[in-house]
Amino acid sequence: MRDLFRISVLIVCLVFVVPASANDKTIIMGYKAIAKQPLIGDAENNAGLYKDLFSQAAAKIGYQLKIVRIPKKRLHFELAQGNVDFYPGSSFSQKRADYLYYLPNGLQTKEVLVSLLEQPEITDMNAAKGTLIVELGSSKLEWDQLYPSINIVQLGKLSLDTVIKGLKARRGDFYIADIEIVDHYKKQHQLNSYADIGIRIHYQAINKQFIPMNMGFSRRSRLFSEQPNHAFDPEKRVSIDNFTTVVEKRSVAYQFHQALEEMRKQGETQKLYEKYFK
Fold it and tell me: Which residues form the Solute-binding protein family 3/N-terminal domain (predicted)?
């Protein structure tokens, strides 16, 4: 019965995502169907840090949060159409920047490189040579263009457990993970060190310091509006800090971002983080 319910939920999600009407005070967050605990549970249970954080921010501006769970490829289609308003944690991608605008969500993150213990310590991604495991539809599919010494292999739904098995089975040499997921896995499995299971975490390979985590807000959402960025430099690569447009302050997307920023400043975000990760 439980499996039948799970299949039914997935079928409904696959068929359609109903966008909110113009007057509906709902912000729709989309996430892939698999769990990424403790950020979010599986498709039957959205409980986690993301739900707490974004529902509280939405309430502060008079909105309700709705969460839809669909496969990642379909999710990005819905974001591109504006039927889903935002993705909670998103790395910048040149391709996805066509339909996503990146705004800090109040959390701090850092990407780390995961490998077998036999790999020497890497403190610069340019020194990584081998095969990078990426999930189907990941923004990391472009990384072989940034780092010519690596090549890409795509695998299906990836949890850190699956990644570690893949590394040990020689399906690839590296994987990029968010540090909060790495820390949670270590706590969950009561590891003194990743070396105990033959794994090395390269903490300095990508981000030297913690950086703001960004949500990707749909540029085609009814809640988003933008205007030309007069500070944009066409001679430089398009990035979060050098983007062609800026979000308009009158938009709901900007107000939502401001509510998240206020939560960060007041320490509310940190309390939520500690609830799930400490």
Answer: 156-278
